[in-house]
């Protein structure tokens, strides 16, 4: 059984909007609805858990779940950090869940093809991250001064979904909480306990809606791919 945990319990501070960014629209459809749709339609996904803020549960049910007819979606509540939210989502997994895909609700343009590729490679390797090779030259900067320029040919930008065999993600999360470790993505937790995490080719369209200008980019991506 394959489960998707879609996290949408952030506060969207960088978006500076008067509602949580997941409920903002990209060409008349909410960011979160775009994201959920891709997993809901995928015949290889058996369970969807959406993590939302408790005070946004009614808004989620009315504006997303009921409006688009997404049935059998489980809800988990958000935590203080993204990682805490995912911990709550993991606790809701079905007992038969074997592969767990963790996806940002703020990434509306994941595709069914990439989801299926991630599932296949996770079955083979145990832990995978969707991402893309960076196009810019990356600088390591301290106090405004470049300290290093990593070899671009080995630098990738991590996206989501980040997918794991269930025992791997559960062990990685358990260890992170024992150590008081917080990572900026899920793979870091698995890397820290020694798992080899494989990259899966993502898409440059799979952007995260983070700041106001992203909405404009998103509208043009949506028009191009719809
Ligand atoms: N406590 C949190 C923090 C983040 N997220 C989710 O993690 C994803 C990536 O996080 P980010 O883009 O940083 O979202 P926010 O934390 O909402 O944004 P900001 O940092 O600007 O407040 C988003 O789908 C967000 O809803 C979450 O579920 N719970
Ligand atoms: C998980 C992630 O989307 C991979 O790029 C990213 O690390 C989330 O980071 P944020 O600080 O919550 O934006």
What does this structure look like?
- The protein is an alpha/beta fold.
- It has one domain (2-225): Spore Coat Polysaccharide Biosynthesis Protein SpsA, Chain A.
- It has seven helices and eleven strands.
- Helix 5 packs across helix 6.
- The mean pLDDT is 97.
- The site of cytidine-5'-triphosphate (CTP) has 21 residues, from helix 3.
- The record marks 152, 208 as: Positions MEP for the nucleophilic attack.
- This is 2-C-methyl-D-erythritol 4-phosphate cytidylyltransferase.
- The record marks 14, 21 as: Transition state stabilizer.
- Keywords: Isoprene biosynthesis, Nucleotidyltransferase, Transferase.
Helix content: 25-40%
Stretches with pLDDT under 50, minimum 5 residues: none
Order of strands across the main sheet: 5-4-1-6-10-7-11
Rough outline: globular
| Ligand kinds | cytidine-5'-triphosphate, ligand LQXTBERG
What portion of the residues fall into strands of 2 or more residues?
A: 15-25%
Report how far the terminal alpha carbons are from each other. Answer: 29 Å
- Compressed to H and E, one letter per element, the order equals EEEHEHEHEHEEEEHHEH
Number of domains: 1
CATH 2nd-level architecture:
Alpha-Beta Complex
* Residue-averaged pLDDT: 97
By CATH, the topology is: Spore Coat Polysaccharide Biosynthesis Protein SpsA, Chain A
CA gyration radius, whole angstroms: 17 Å
